[in-house]
Write a structure and sequence with these properties.
mainly alpha; Four Helix Bundle (Hemerythrin (Met), subunit A)
Length: 216
């Protein structure tokens, strides 16, 4: 990334140094996030290996329609945000604001579908793990373990989405104040890295939740 701002903080040798440090810092943070989610996905796959029928039956209780719609929503949001970065690289703050606003609305739509619609239906069908879990019979244990991973994974991802919405809103706020230009857009770029990472996590969650074992 080649970029320089007019000013920089005293601890940096140049504006370019400051920009590169910010981007490197975000990549380092995302590396720690990969370790966290990687452990979650590995545990998920390992647990499924020991009770595939139960996990498969649990997956069949999820809403493939909502899961697929949310996947398309997040992929679109990342695309739109990336277009906004391309615009600010050409010095067009107005288009950046518009793209960020669309990405924000898509992110909000994801949360509404996931937690306002799908989670509400899950609770109504007593799919939350516990004594009142709604699945009975020999597949109960595996299905309940599936939903432990399901609720934990989607809750953590949802928390990251909320943080992402706050950050995208912050980018919009700064762009409206004309803080970005073709020569300085590091904050918008860094937030874009985070937003894309959260979308990539969902792309891995999507098959684990909705696809693996659904055809059995």
């Amino acid at each position: 990334m080649s970029e320089a701002s007019a000013t920089h903080e005293f601890q940096y040798s140049s504006a370019q140094h400051q920009a590169e440090t910010a981007v490197s810092g975000m990549w380092l943070f995302l590396a720690t996030e990969v370790l966290f989610f990687g452990a979650l996905f590995l545990a998920w796959i390992y647990a499924r290996h020991w009770d595939e029928p139960g996990f498969d039956y649990g997956a069949q209780q999820t809403s493939l329609v909502i899961g697929t719609a949310n996947t398309l929503i997040l992929i679109t949001s990342s695309l739109v945000y990336s277009v906004g970065i391309a615009f600010i690289m050409m010095g067009n703050s107005r288009r950046l604001i518009q793209c960020c606003a669309i990405a924000w609305l898509l992110g909000a739509a994801f949360l509404i579908l996931k937690f306002g619609v799908e989670w509400r239906d899950d609770f109504a069908r007593h799919l939350f793990p516990g004594t009142s879990f709604g699945i009975h019979g020999p597949l109960r244990g595996g299905a309940q373990t599936f939903f432990v991973f399901y609720f934990f994974g989607t809750a953590i991802h949802g928390l990251h989405m909320v943080v992402g919405l706050v950050l995208v809103g912050w980018v919009i706020f700064r762009a409206r104040r004309l803080n970005f230009s073709a020569s300085y857009f590091t904050p918008a770029f860094v937030v874009g890295l985070y937003w894309s990472f959260v979308d990539m996590v969902w792309i891995i969650l999507y098959p684990l939740i909705y696809l693996v074992g659904r055809g059995t």
